Every structure is written in C-alpha cells, then in structure tokens.
## 1
Amino acid sequence: MVGPTDLVERSLRDDTREEFDRRVDEQADRVADALGAGRFDNPDFALGLELEAYAVDGDGRLARVPDAVFEGRCERELGRQNVEFHTDPTSFDDEGIAAQAAQLREDVRNARRTAGREGTEIVLDAMWTIPPPGGSRDYLSDVRECDGVTLAENMTASARYSAIDNDVLSRTGGTLTFSVPGADREFPSILFESLASSIQPHVQVPDVAEFPDYYNTALRTLGPVLALATNSPLLPPDLYDADEPDRLLDETYHELRIPAFEQSINPAWEKVRFPHDIRSVEDCVGRLVADPTCAPFLREWLADGDRETFADRYWELDHKRGTYWRWLRAVIGGQPVDGGDQWSVRIEYRPLPTQPTVAENVGFQCLVAGLVHGLCAADHPLATLDRDAAERSFYAAVENGLDADLAWVTADGDRTSDRTRIYGELFEFARRGLRDRGVSSDTVDEFLGPLEARWTERTTPSRWKLARVADRLDAGDPFDEAVREMQTEYVRRAGTGEPVAEWS
C-alpha cells in the first residue's frame, strides 16, 4: 500500500510533472473536440452550492471536527477544523431552489447533531477568531518532517493537500508570509489559508455558445456581490501586533479571506487572482492547460475502476482544475442533474465568504444565479465595463465592503459608481432573472429579501462584527475579550436562523 508521504514524494518528481503535463495536453485536445461536437450542451440551467464551516468546543474555541460528522453527507477540507457541505445539482427553477435549501438544511442539521454528541458545534462563519487552547500561531505552525516531506499536524490527512503544501513550500524557501493590517506573520505551511471558510454557488449554462456572455457578465458582478457578503474582518487576536485596537478596526479589511488565500499560494505562482474575459469555452481549456502545474497526481495512483464519468476519462485535466484558483472559474464536465451521461459547463463563483445562516447562504446562491441570468437574458450592457475597472471594484470591496468604490454600467449604458444605482439594478435584475426561471414571488422574497435588507439597513456580517467589537472596547474591554464576546454573540445569533440584517 502506498502511503501519503510516498504520494507526495512522487508528486514532486520531475518525471511525474512531465507525464502529468503530457496527459493534460492530450486530454485538453479531446475536450476541445467534444466541445465542438456539442457534448457539453444541456437541456436547461442548473444550480449547485458548496458551503464550508468550522467547529468549536464548548467554550467557543476552535476545535477539530469529529470523525463521525464525515459519515454523513459532507467532506473534509484543508484544516481539521473544517467541514464542507455540497448540494447535488438541481434544476434552476422554483422546485430546484427548494431542493437546494432543503438538502443544505438537512445536512447542516445532521452534522450539528452529530458534532453536538461529542461536545462540539458546527459554526457557519467565514473566519474563526477564538483560538484553540494552544493559540493560533502554534496551531497554524505545528509541522513535522517525515521522510523529507513537511506535514502540518492540523491539516487534514490528505496526500493532495500535503502535496500542494510541499510544492508551494519548495518554491518559497519553506516559509510563507501573511500580511494584513495589524498583522505580519510567517508560517511554515499554507495552513493559514484555513482561517477562512467560503461558499461557492454554481450555475450550469446549457448552451456552450452562450457561456462566455454569462462568464464575462458574472466577472463584473464580483465586486458588488462580495461587498454585500463580507464576513471576515478580523483574525484571531493573538495573531495581531496592534497596540491600538481602535485604529485596527478602522484599517482592517472587511474580507480577509481573499488575502489569506492569495498569500498562501501566490508567492509560488500567481494562481489565485481575478481572471480575464473569455471569448469561448475553449479559452477556458487553454488557460487551464497553461496554468502552472501544482502537486500533480496520476490517475493510476488513486483511481478506482474504469468508469465513464468525465472525471475518470479526463482524470489529470480534472485534477489540474482543482489547483486552478481564480475568483471566477469555469468548470468543464460535471455531475448532471438527472444522473444521465451528459456533461456540462458551469460557472463557479468563488470569492464569497460563508454566511451566518443556511437561508442567507442559499440567498447568495439565488442572488448570483438570478443576477447573472437576468443580466444576460435582458442583454444588459454590464459586460462592456472595462475588465480592469471590475478588478479594482472587486479589491475595493475586499477592503471596504459596502463603502467600496464600486464600478457598474447601467441598463442605459452609463458608467456609474453610485452605489444606490448599482444595488437598485443588482436586485432588479436578480429578481427578473429568477422570475424568468419560474421562481415564485414567495421564494424570491424568502431568499433575496434578507439580502436586500442588508443594503437598506447598510449592514453586513463584517459591519456587525466590527461594530460589536467597537462597542465592547468603548465599554472598557481589552481587545481579545471584545473579540471573544463578539464571536460568542455571533455564534448564538447565527444559530437562531435570524438574518444578520435583523441583528441589533
């Protein structure tokens, strides 16, 4: 039996990389042929969702997810404290949205029930801030060497994760720097990426010829949608050097997940970034092939049997897609809605942090799908917005949330940074897109209403968090206690299912 360190060593060999790249090139040529033959066209749109969360103990401190949780419908993620839920694809309509919400509610409820029996709680949040008993730095820096391979003790025991970690470390001298306002830290592993949790809405586009319009339009929504979702403004207090907590609250970013992910990988290659427009789906294949190869594995090391799914027939190409980290990504091939053999092309919308409640996470799935479809169905001119302006808008949202200098093109073709106009159109076209897919008014109100209230009330999870910490500082609490009190209240409120716009 091949052990995990053996797989990591194999992955890092030059001959593995050469063979992997050869297979990727060959498989990409076959995928391009299949795209031209209509193999990826589908009868209709479809939806899916990935949702990450983390575990805490009875004192609210970061904890490992109990193994029993993974006997249900969820998977492990990078850190041992992480759990990922994912929905099966459903039709993009009223019934499909109901099925997405029902599955997610059931899976989260079951995971929480199982974790609770072992004294832990599953939290829907974008960044943990109450450290484990030994402290954040020790938790994120606990590594050992085994047969020349670096193993992070609090990373999920996965050869793939360890191979990525070692490939990055081999190109960065064994150390990675994480720098955000108030904190400059060095780590011996990419594990600091696991500070953060995310959601990833998926939208399957049935007509491959129309996919570039959907992709390029979605690219220009990233800034405004992220600004509405921000939920990771603070690190665990023991990672900060700040002596002036009030100043830190003013200077911190509203979405620290973005720099955490980018800085964990980009010192080795600039792989985590805002993408460029595409002209065809074939562009997506070409860019995947051209992207630097990270932690290559070969099919015969892991694959079981000789099935005919896309991932089995194009194993190395699909494996490489797993390290093609763009904030918007095209996924070619995938599980069909009806369990048939038709392959698909979908948008994977990647920058959004995990939200406090299941309903709000599904709300962002509805917002993204409805907005992109509504804009494209109406032939809205948003895609004419300069790509660089869209990128600046995105990183402005990372830093400033709802106060960001956003960029938009209105339905009349006017360039604007007026947030009132931007969010007016954003919700208008999201609702239009959902109605066009036969989604009922009740469903639209149920899932978009709480997000519209965020704009009306000018609140987001990150704004709520920063305000609560500021209140505790004004009451005389030290910074670490102020963060702990905020986080404890967040967990309690999130557990009630009450949307953040109603938190006082």
## 2
Amino acid sequence: MNTPLAPASGMAAVTASSPANATAGASAGAPGSAPGAGAALPVLPRPSVDEFDAVLQHGAYMPLTQFGVIDALGEDAASFLHGQLTNDTQHLDAATARLAGYCSAKGRLLASFLTWRSGETIRLLVSKDVQAAVQKRLSMFVLRAKAKLVDASGELAVVGLAGEVRKALSGVFDALPDGVHVQVDGAAGSLIRVPDALGRLRYLWVGPKALIDTHLPTLDGALKRVSPAVWDWLDIRAGEPRITQPVVEQFVPQMVNFDVLGAVNFRKGCYPGQEVVARSQYRGTIKRRTSLANVAGELDTVKAGAELFHSDDPGQPCGMVVNAASARDGGVDLLVEIKLAALEGGSVHLGAADGAALTFLTLPYGLPTEV
C-alpha cells in the first residue's frame, strides 16, 4: 500500500501525542495538545428538562454551532478524498450520505466526518475544533489533483431536528429522506436523515445561512428551539462517536465502532493508515470498543479525553471518554472507549480508581463478537 507520509508541519498541526504502540489492542494513551488545532469547543450549559422533553415528547430544532463544513471542489475532489478517507467517496451519489474517518499513517483517527454531495460539491461535516487543522493537512496532499478544499462554515448553517418534525420540514422540503443516511437536496439546502436516538427521528439540515434564517420563523411556529447540547446528547444515545480535539489520534476506527457504523469500507483502495485498520479487522486484534455509559457529575468535570480505571487494576487506565453530554435524567452520558475485558466484571471509574463509577447502558446497535 502506498500511504503518503505527512510533511512534518502538517503532522504537528493536528496530532496529539500518540502511543508508541499503534495497534488496535494497545492502550489509547493520554490525550495531548494539538498545536495548530482550532479553539476548544465551549462547555455548553446543561439544557433544561423542558428542552430534553421537547425532543422526547414533541419535536425540536437546534442550530448546531459545534460543527463546521469543508467543501471539496473540482473535478478530482471525489477521487482525492477517496484516497484519504476510510469510506468510499468515489461512488458517493446524490441521495446518500456516509460517515468517514481521516487517519494518521498509524491508523489513528484525526477527524470524523459526515460526507455527502451537494451538486458538484462534496461536503464534509466536521467538529469545528479540528476543522482548520484537518483542512490544512488534507490540502497538503492535493498536489496535482484538480481539487480544492474551502471552509464553507461562514456561508452555511447547520441545524439539527429531532422528534416529530416531519410536518414542519414538509413546509420547507418537497420530499423527506426515507432512510438513515439518505439525503435530499432542495432549494433550502440539504436534508439528511441521521440515526434515530431513543426512538426519535433525527435530521440534519445544511444550507445557506441567509436562506435558512428566512425559514426559522416558520419552524418556531411548530417546533421548540433548544440548545445544541441536546444534539450532543442525542448523538451519544445514538451511539455515534465524534472525534474532537481532546481525542485526536487516540483511536483506530474500530475502537469507536466505525466498522459497525459503516464508516469504513474495507474493499476500497488505499488511504493513510489503511494497513493498520485492515490488520486490526482481519487478525482479531480488536480488544477495545466503544460503549454507552452514564456517570454522576457535570460537563465542567466530565470531559472527552478523561481516562477510565478499573477496580481490579487501579494502576493503569482501561479506557477513555470519547464524548460527553449532559443527560436528561441527571449526570453525564458518555461514549467511552474501553478494553472489552474491563466490561466482564468489577467496576469502572472516571479519572482514578476511586473516582465516580460508571453505569453502563445498552447501545442501540450490536457489536460483533470478538475472538
């Protein structure tokens, strides 16, 4: 496999200090800083119970300020991204969205994306705190390809909708996506159905800011506007990890269930880190997975990148918090990457062996049985 080596400045722009052993069975290691990464995402205040209940009992929408959008332009945009990301962009059609990861040469995730086509443009939805650095790194490999990556975040708005929202959306779009990761383009932008959470429908609406702003008063008449923190919680309850700055280069895709979520195409051509990702898949070395949990506390003390410790082995971490969000019924809901063996007995604690104990919940999808 011909995996391109990163220029030194490009690697420094996005990577955290990574473990020496980069196999999927290795410890995730402590999070490091990422020189050149974007500003840290703000800690969002805990939503009110009414905001959670608007989604669970009726329908709600929320402007999603935690995301940015990268547009890939040019006749070689699809083939260029196909050689960089874990999923197939070469055959991405106008009705489909796909999850994808972007890895270092060691197979560790630098970013996660939702990708889709809007006309001739391929759009990448990404956590805003890693966007600038990842866009810069990808641009270093364009070379002679007829492709260009631009920051579209200033022109586009991203809105999440959840619950009973179809009637409200039908006033904006002529047709609604009828399946997960189906997308429709309309005069108001792109509408993508994303995985349900807690049995509630969810959609992402991405379009020109000025145009979306003209439609929001109509939504206000039918849906409650709630905090973007509710979307973070719904993503966690859907079991869909997101790579943010504190966990850059900590996980092989399988550690965050990206193989199960369809974010890795094992039949496509080469991309950075492919050899590590494929070896992890086919040689039975996946000893860590991502699970759903709850822990007492608030987001100012429960953060992505925090280490986890097992009661039977307090001297070394057994996992790491991938994402965290305030939970409707109290505490913080988490997606945690953890050794599978740590789930077989004993207790798991946040930060130290005497830290707050995690209560594990059931993911909304099954995981393969590892051998």
## 3
Amino acid sequence: MSDPVKAPMRLPTLFILTTVSIDAMGIGLILPVMPDLIAEIRGTDLSDAARWGGILSATYAIMQFLCAPTLGSLSDRFGRRPILLISMAVLAVDYVVMSLAQTIWLLVIGRIIAGIAAGTHATALAYMADISDPGKRAQNFGLISAGFGMGFILGPLLGGVLGDIDPRAPFVAAAIASAANFTFGYFVLPESLPAGKRRRFDPARANPIGGLKQIEALPGAAPLLGVMMIYNIANFVYPAVWAYYTQAAFGWDSRMVGFSLASYGLAMAVVQAGLIRAILPRLGSIRAVQFGLVLNAVCLIGYGLISEAWMVWALIPISALGAIVAPAMQGVLSNAARDDQQGELQGVLASISSLSMVLSPLVMTQAFFWATRDGAALFLPGAPFLVAALLMSGALALFMAHAGKPAPAR
C-alpha cells in the first residue's frame, strides 16, 4: 500500500481548501444578516443589535483564540482526519441550531460552538505540511490562504443574497455546505500523520498563552508588536460594524451589504496577490508601513464622515491598498528576530491577531451604539471608523518612534 503522504492528493487537497473556505464563510456569510436577525429575536433597534453583534463576534473570536492551538495539538496526537471531520460535523449541526434560534442566548451558544469547531486552520496547515514535499510547502500553504480569501469573498456575497430572502437562510446554507464537505471528506480524506510520528498531548503546549509570552524572547520588538496589535484592532472595524454602519447611514439591505463586503474582499485579494509585490520593493518595508498607516487613517476618516453611498464604492479600492501594512510589518519584525526565532514570531503574530478580533468588535460596536442610540447628542453612524482612525494614528506614532531600533539578531 502506498504511503498516503506520497500518493496523489488532489481530492484531499480539495477537501482541505473547502474546509478553510467554509471556516471563512462562517464569518462572512452571517455578517449581512446579523442586524436583522438580532433585531428580530430581541425585538429591539439597530443600536442595541450592534452591541449584541459585537458580543457574538467577540465570542466567536475568543473561542478560536483559545481552541485553535488545542485542536492542532489534538491532531498531533490522534491524527488530522478525525479532528477535521469531527469539526465539520459539529459545524453542520451548530448552523442548524442557529438557524432555529429564538433567543439571543442560543445564538451566543451557537457562536461559542462555531468558534471552537472553526478553529481548524492550524490542523489544515498541518495536513498540507504532511502531504507536501519540503520544497512545495510554501506553495501549498499559499493555496490555503487563497481558499480562506475565497471564502471571505463568497461568504458576504452569498449571505447578502440569501439574507434578502430570509435572515436565517445563510445559516441553513452554511449547514448544508458543512454537511456536504463532511461527507466528501469522509470518503476521500486519508490520514496524513502516521502513528509513529504522533506525539503525546501536552496541555502546557496546547494553549495560546505560551506564544504570547514569547514576546519577551524578541528583544526590542515589543513596541512593534504593539503597533501590530493596535493596527489590527483598528482594521477589524470593517467586519465588526460594516453591516450596521451601512444600514444606518445609507439604508442598505442585506444584499447591498453582502455585495459591498465581497467587493472589499476582492479588492484586498487583488492588492495582496499583485500590487504588494510591486510596491514593497520600491518603498522598502519601513516606508511601506508608514505609507499604509497614513492611507488607512485617511480612509477611516473618510468612512466616518461621508454622507453619500457612492462615496463608499469610491473608497473601497483605495482603503484596500492599506493592506500593505501587514506584510511590510512582517518584514520589519522579521529583522528583529534571530533566524531560529522566525517560527516563534509567527506564533506571536497569530496570537495578536486573534486577540484583536476579540477586542475590536467590543470597542467598535460600543462606539456605534453610543453614536446612534436614541438621545445621542450627534447621530453619527461612522463614529467607529473615527475611533479606528485615532487608533491607526496611534499605531503610526508608535511605529515612527520605534521603527528601525531593534537591531537584527543573527
């Protein structure tokens, strides 16, 4: 019998790509319908719905933050196949429950379970590493990033279209997709990790805290990691409040929200796939970060103050260019770490991103609530974007104060 790692893996690879796409769609698919669904369940207004939307988003991110390392470690102990298949099955059942939810607390429980089950990104990466030749691992990891990006584009688009029919329809679609992918994987997915290569499950390694503590192992890099934290909190304003903001400011329905989010995702994909490669070599990492932070701050102010819907469409491709910050910061931070710390650095950055996804919805939806509630001194749906602009400016100031100070440690 041939070694599954060496055998042709087209169908298993397709399953892995579909899995990460569904994980991403699980985030984007429900964004366009959350305002209407929460308002329906609670019988409340948009401002209160936004507050609960922030709680639901933060809950999902917290569970991913806590459980993704655990799922990865469990896959090292029991194999990749059972973890991936069980996660898909749990997601399918969970989306059915959420489609039937009649109370906000059932939605909260649903997002807790979804956050746990959707934390399979590390396991998917591990599976791809198992089945890839060393020289092709980076290329195959790129496929996973592309699959995640495709899910984020398709999720809001489908969510907007289906949500226009019924705010619960996207949950039914997600359940069907998860169940279909589970069935597909059950028949085509071999185990990629031989029994002889598995390791004992160690709770001390199966949590995100250890990664965060490694900040101290990168001398001089802590302020730059702070820049990444602030930048991510500011940048996550888009998924955190976009549906509430566009409905309150321009009266958009779920279809328009979905189209606009998909357009932003597509613009981001174009920037990440092509433009960044042309811009970074010309500017260098430090100047690229400065350019991106300034551009992001200006665009966020724009979103905060604009009064016409067409201005949103004009800003989308410009603000997407601000995505240059993340890869440029990767370059700056990489120079602050030793060659044998590069993997450690990526773990720290992943933890920072997860924490940002927890904090940003709470901050931004609160800003939206106070600026749009009955009795607000000034009705300003774009207030969260102005808060994000302040944070982005703070990230720029911190970066300007510390950029270039950490000496390369080789």
## 4
Amino acid sequence: MSSKPCVKICAAIVFFVPSYVIANTVIDFENPLPGGLVATSYVQSTIVPASAWVTDQYLNVGLVVDGAAIVALPSGSAPSGINALAGIGGDGRIDYDTPVSFSFFAPGNSGVMGTTDFFGYSADLFGSSRNIITISAYGLDGSLVGQVSYTETGDFTAPLIISGVGQFHSVTVDQTLYNTTSGGIALDLIQFGDISIAAVPEPQTYVMLLAGLGLLGFMVHRRKQDI
C-alpha cells in the first residue's frame, strides 16, 4: 500500500473538470462500522475474512461497493484516521491491482438505480510508486460516460475526482500496481454528489398503459377480421 501522489490528469475519454465540487455524502470508513464490518490487515495478499468484505453496508446512503475490503492502515496513513478500502482479488486476497466498483441507488433500496454527477476519494498518505489510477464512470445502460487518469508521482494534495461528464450510475477505480513491494493505494473518504432517481411510473400509469395495449390489440384483431 503506498499512496499520496502529485496528480497528473489525462482527459482520456471526456474532459476532466479541475475545480473541486462539494460532495453531498462523504464516507470515512471509521468505527463504528455498519453491518458487522471489521477491518482486516492492509498487507498485499492477505486473505480477506467475510467480515471485511464491503457490499451493501452503506446502502442507507445509496452506495453499493463491489470488490473491496475494509482494511486498517498503519498509523498516520488513512486521511480519515485508521480505516480505508483495498481491492480484493479473484482468490479472495487483498490485491491493490484489482478494480473496485461503486454503484448508486435510491438510499435503502438496491432495486432502484440512481445516478450522480460527482465522485471522488482520498488516497492513503504513503509515498509514491508511479502507479496509474484510472477512474471510469458508467451510465445506467453500462456504457462508458467518462474517464480520467492520475499518476502517483509524489503527494495527492486533493481528492481524486471525476465530474463534469454528466450523470453516471457506477464508477470503477482501477490501479495498475507496478511494484507489489511498494504497495498499492488505499481508498478513503469516498464522496459523491446528490443521487438522482429515475422516475418510476405510478400504478395508474401502468393501468393506462395496459389498457392502451389491450385496445391496440383489439383493433388489430378486428382489422384482420375485416380484411
């Protein structure tokens, strides 16, 4: 785990807005943790116990996480205090080279997808390793909305963000870990803007729609009889 770099920004797919946008929600991953979460070791290749897997424990604020574990960092490493997130590899071990995904939903309801126009996080406070970080944002249909890259070359003095690309439903943070001995970059202080919820038709709307389809079917049937 290494981290805290000077930022190099590349407009890969879309523009990157350098101005900082105030987040509506910030998650610091500090104790007390929700849903029985217990932080595990931050060390690369540590086997992740079930109690450290982060999934929907933060759904109450509209966030679902995939591929990440709560880890306890060395003293002075986490911007928020002690804990942060690290990726989990396919073998169930801590792997800073594995992408971590964040998706947005109606708070408390994973059945209703949401979108936001801002996402960011703070990297841990360790040194540099020239790891490449790519943040990709995806729409409700899974299409790529925007992408921005950072290179860890010194110290990250501000959150790493993606914004100004329009509304997106999910974000993937992908790090290219060149040197496993130098460690990867932990994710802390996850932040995002207001969550917008797609309008859900009211019950009477469904009734009118079904009635309309029924009428259309009847008219087609009558027309076939008249031919």
